[in-house]
Design a protein that fits this description.
Structural class: alpha+beta
Strand content: 15-25%
Radius of gyration: 15 Å
Largest sheet: 4 strands, antiparallel
Number of helices: 5
Helix content: 25-40%
Order of helices and strands: EHEEHEHHH
CATH architecture: 2-Layer Sandwich
Distance between the termini: 46 Å
Number of strands: 4
């Protein structure tokens, strides 16, 4: 084949350090926009971003020329530095070290986009621990629960 073609959709989930409710409603849209711009600059455009005060879900198209860990590291590091410039209330902001990332097919994209857009409503009934464990189980990811919650 004379060219390299790929479509790699990633559902990324990560939380604030200690799951502190640090993503305030007044900063959330700007944070998501900054994340989207960062992903775009990494040739890995966001499809949608959503979340709550303690975690985010990002659906993006991973660049065929970038490693997943490098993209995640740059997004987390860049947004952490950026949010700290938004005032004294955000100076101690940190993301949790880990993350969960799942590949999804194009046929599942619409349902996932709806799910991400409905995060606030979803989390009125389900907490983050239950949600994350459900995703890990659904995707068959082995994990040690001891290390899920730092």
């Amino acid at each position: 084949m004379p060219q390299s073609l790929a479509t790699i959709r990633i559902h990324l989930i990560f939380s604030t350090k200690g799951r502190v409710c640090a993503i305030k409603p007044e900063i959330e849209p700007e944070l998501h926009a900054y994340m989207a711009e960062t992903l775009k600059s990494l040739d890995s455009p966001a499809v949608c971003i959503g979340g709550t005060e303690d975690h985010v879900h990002v659906l993006f198209s991973l660049s065929k020329s970038r490693a997943l860990i490098d993209v995640i590291e740059k997004v987390k590091k860049g947004t952490s530095k950026w949010i700290k410039t938004k005032g004294p209330a955000f100076r101690t902001f940190y993301w949790q070290v880990g993350y969960a990332a799942f590949s999804i097919g194009k046929s599942n994209e619409a349902a996932l986009v709806r799910y991400i857009h409905n995060q606030k409503k979803h989390h009125r009934k389900t907490d983050f621990k239950v949600e994350l464990k459900a995703f890990l189980d659904r995707y068959g990811v082995d994990y040690d629960e001891t290390y899920l919650w730092d």
